[in-house]
Amino acid sequence: MDDEIALAAIAGAHGIAGEVRLKLFAAGLESLKRHKQVRVGGRALTLTSLKPAKQPIARFAEIDDRTAAEGLRGQLVTISRAALPPLEEGEYYHADLIGLPCESAAGDPLGTIVAVENFGAGDLLEIEKPDGRRALVPFRPGVADLHDRRVVADPDFLA
């Protein structure tokens, strides 16, 4: 599963014909639409339709009733890392940031990236500090920068 990237999670069933509601982790439906084959709970499924909504609605060829759709609740919708488009300079996948060390410009350890959130105003890095406490730091130049498989952050934002 190390080469699997989660694009969404199944939030629950929708209707009686096997459709499911999705919680997207990607930027939008287009990032999921380009993949006809996905994995859900370790099982290969064929994505046949996606409908825009607050929680987008998906249909899989192999799921044809509400009971089967309800059985997918909480499962991740993943694709192979190799199926992702190549990155441009300065771009990154959230999955690549998780687990990276975070340190100050002087090289002092500040913690480890444990999650990446985005509530609409830009990416926030969740950093678990050495004492176990966590802090959210804006992922933007001068506050937190990505350098050679590590994040260099301003320690004042972790207080």
SSE topology string: EEHEEEHEHEEEEEE
- The CA-CA distance between the termini, in Å, is 35 Å
Radius of gyration: 18 Å
- Helix-residue proportion: under 10%
How many helices? The count is: 3
Q: How much of the polypeptide forms β-strand, as a percent range? A: 35-45%
Unreliable residue stretches: none
Q: What structural category characterises the helix and strand content?
A: mainly beta
Neighbour order of strands in the largest sheet: 1-2-5-4-3-6
Largest sheet: 6 strands, antiparallel, barrel
Describe this structure as you would to a colleague.
The chain is mostly beta strands and about 160 residues long. The protein is built from three helices and twelve strands, in the order E-E-H-E-E-E-H-E-H-E-E-E-E-E-E. It has helices spanning about 30-35, 65-70, 95, and strands at about 5-15, 20-25, 35-40, 45-50, 55-60, 75-80, 100-105, 110-120, 125-130, 135-140, 145, 150-155. The strands form two sheets. Strands 1-2-5-4-3-6 form a six-stranded antiparallel barrel. Strands 10-9-8-7-12-11 form a six-stranded mixed β-sheet. The radius of gyration is 18 Å and the shape is elongated. The model has no long low-confidence stretch (mean pLDDT about 90).
